[in-house]
Amino acid sequence: MSILIAPSVLASDFANIQREIEMLNASESDYIHVDIMDGVFVPNISFGVPVTEAINKHAKKPLDVHLMIVNPDQYLEIFRKAGAEIITVHYEACTHLHRTLQAIKQIGAQAGVALNPHTSVDLLEDVIQQIDLVCIMSVNPGFGGQKFIDNTYDKVRKLKALIERKGASTKIEIDGGVNKENAPLLKEAGADILVAGSFVFSAEDPISTIKNLKTI
């Protein structure tokens, strides 16, 4: 099965967001990755509900919304209404993760859990069967264009083994520093979805870049 690609609009041209979304619609991308940052959980502020709604208005691909925020439970329904088909919360931001996962599913979205680079995949053992997607952060969250953390490969393999051992159908997503060099290695380790921001939007031909990533 070919790898799934979720370009991150955090790296797009915000002044021409409609044009950027239409480019993604015309590409072979599978999802549109939307990073929500609050300046508290991560040291940066991106965009919120109104921009997510604007993206959704033009998007023909499912929105993969990544909440890098404190108290995500307060915002699940509002982001679902804004168009999120996948809602990913951070393990580190959820005191009652199982309850949060149930809440995401109750509003009809797929439930994702993101792990910061220092967070062990072992912590998901008791809830892995309730998770549709685990987003492994391969950079420290908050800013685009960072260098890929090499320990990610081992983390993916470990998570893949946990998923198989528990008989779960969870997909593994990688977010941060993805490029043509590490993409084949990530796929080999067990990744299902690659989030690509700067690598796609800084390319001379983003549509070809996405297509090339799909064929690794």
Automatic annotation (TrEMBL):
One of its GO terms (cellular component) is cytoplasm. It catalyses: D-ribulose 5-phosphate = D-xylulose 5-phosphate. The keyword Kinase does not apply. Keywords: Carbohydrate metabolism, Isomerase, Metal-binding. It holds the Pfam family Ribul_P_3_epim. HAMAP family: RPE. NCBIfam families: PRK05581.1-4, rpe. This is Ribulose-phosphate 3-epimerase.
